[in-house]
Specification:
With 259 residues, this protein is an alpha+beta fold. The protein has one domain: Aminopeptidase. The protein has 9 helices and 8 strands. Strands 1, 2, 3, 4, 5, 6, 7 and 8 form an 8-stranded mixed beta sheet that branches. The radius of gyration is 18 Å and the shape is globular. The termini are far apart. It comes from Pseudoduganella chitinolytica. This is N-acetyltransferase domain-containing protein.
Length: 259
């Protein structure tokens, strides 16, 4: 009989160190390539993460596994997952769903820990609201996000011929709705939470992974959600407004910094 205190990723998660960085692409460039390559997303290092971190105000929570010996050299430090927020003003950030290593896709404890740590770091910076870009035509992610406290706002962005609406939530409300507001990081990594909380985490995190999958596959027009990585200063004024902006020219269809 299986030990109910064990979970598939529990032992591996015990070896992880969690940290926060403001210059993710520079601090963890080799590790980022190594994580994204098996996911067939290595091109995003140069196309998305490097320019984003160089030109935007970002916070990224990372999960690292360090090799006991030898302590240096190729593979000494492995990135298991990360979650990024782009700070757009003094009180709001736009999220990109967590990206987990190819062998960690069902690691809910890791995804929850990264989310909780990111929300805590945002709160320390006085940033109380987090948002996600949601396809206006979404019939899956829209109700999912409303169920954990997100609400549709007035901001819009047009890309890939689709209109995306900014859904926002207070970070403390999100953690409460996911039943992890009071959980310790160690308990989250071990997934020592209630069955109800596990269900909510699966609903939220696996939903986000599925919702952004079309974007990662290069089909932004079919994505339920977009990465929260927008160079606000570079966007045409009509692209973010209370109503839909005009379709972007073909050469601009791919959003700046992956948004």
């Amino acid at each position: 009989m299986l030990n109910p205190d064990l979970n598939l990723h529990g032992a591996a998660n015990e070896r992880l160190d969690l940290a926060v960085t403001r210059n993710f692409a520079a601090d963890f460039r080799p590790e980022l390539f190594a994580l994204l390559r098996p996911l067939h997303l290595a091109h995003l290092v140069e196309e998305l993460w490097a320019p984003l971190c160089a030109g935007g105000n970002t916070l990224t929570t990372v999960a690292l596994e360090e090799r006991p010996w030898p302590p240096k050299g190729v593979g000494a430090r492995r990135l298991r997952g990360f979650c990024t927020a782009l700070v757009i003003d003094k009180r709001q950030a736009i999220l990109t769903p967590q990206v987990l290593a190819a062998d960690q896709q069902s690691n809910l404890g890791l995804a929850a820990a990264l989310t909780q740590l990111l929300c805590a770091e945002l709160a320390e910076q006085g940033i109380v609201t987090a948002g996600l870009w949601v396809n206006r035509a979404s019939a899956v992610l829209s109700p999912l996000l409303r169920g954990v406290g997100f609400e549709a706002g007035e901001m819009r962005v047009v890309s890939d011929g689709c209109e995306f609406v900014l859904y926002s939530v207070a970070t403390d409300v999100l953690l409460e709705r996911l039943d992890i507001a009071q959980a310790r990081l160690g308990d989250l990594l071990a997934l020592k939470v209630t069955p109800a909380a596990i269900g909510k985490l699966a609903y939220y995190h696996l939903g986000l992974q599925a919702g952004i999958a079309a974007y990662w596959a290069g089909q932004g027009g079919l994505a339920e959600i977009y990465p929260g990585l927008i160079d606000w200063a570079a966007l045409p004024p009509a692209s973010i407004t209370g109503t839909a902006g005009p379709p972007l020219p073909r050469e601009q269809d791919q959003p700046i910094f992956g948004s």
